[in-house]
Design goal:
It is a single chain. With about 260 residues, this protein is of the alpha+beta class. Helix content is about 40%, strand content about 10%. It has a single domain, classed as Cytochrome P450 (Cytochrome p450, Orthogonal Bundle), CATH 1.10.630.10. The strands form four sheets. Strands 1-4 form a two-stranded antiparallel sheet. The structure holds protoporphyrin IX containing FE. Protoporphyrin IX containing FE binds next to helix 2, helix 3 and helix 10.
Length: about 260
Amino acid sequence: MHHRVDLWKTRGKDYTLRDIGMMELGFLWGSQANTVPSVFWMVANVISNTELQQEVLQSMSSSRKGKSSEPFALTEDFELASLLADPIMLSCTSEVLRMYADSLSIRHVEKDTVLQVDGQEFLAKKGTNVIVSGRAAVHMDEDIYNEPEKFKSKRFTNHNLEKTIIKLDNANEEVQKKTFSKNGVVVRHNLLPFGGGAALCPGRTFASNEILTFTATLLTYLDFKAPAQLPSIDITRAGFGVLPPSTSYMVEMSLKKEF
Ligand code: HEM
């Protein structure tokens, strides 16, 4: 921690210890509060559905490169780059973020600005804040997503989250194969779990990889007996990041004999 305080001080800014404490706490919160419940929903959605679990294991098997004698040696057993590109795992990760991520993007308005929203114009006055919830505004919109309240493991196959959130503004970019639209118009920023623009989450690739590899590790080395019924979402936490479950989800797990 002392090293991190020194690091902040070398940044050339006049940070007080209080400033540094606030930034460190924010970083700790941002890096933990979202990935932990994301991993929960990812694992729970897969293990609660035997068919999907088999499908995921089958798909992951094409990234297998070895068979270590010790459990939990994911990097020895899998070709990591290939695993991180697994189409079903990637689609499930995007679907988890669509359904459960509920952060707010908050922007301070520095000059009077007219915003165009759904064909209407809104004046954002200088000095006010504009707050956008990607989940409420886009992710749960049933015109964009069919049955938005349902977890659909293949909803995002052939769809690139990274391109959606930052690159599609460039007309020359390769257009992703699967698009989502509303009233016949393609919704370019159809997935906003990591916000956007200047404050776009810098931890997004790390976070997606963390969710995917953690889930792959559990599924590869453990057997699960899990109820088909998942807990409901604790919506009272709306706006505070990835939403937690409202109750516990009790499962039985044991080390696989063969992995
Ligand atoms: C599923 C996991 C995560 C989600 C859903 C998430 C979401 C977000 C969102 C919505 C923002 C605000 C973007 C905006 O204002 O438009 C943000 C900012 C940020 N996130 Fe993440 N995040 C995740 C994981 C992480 C991780 C693992 C780290 C660090 C290792 C991290 C570090 C940050 C930082 C430093 C910011 C502030 C960026 C700035 O203000 O310039 N996040 N994140």
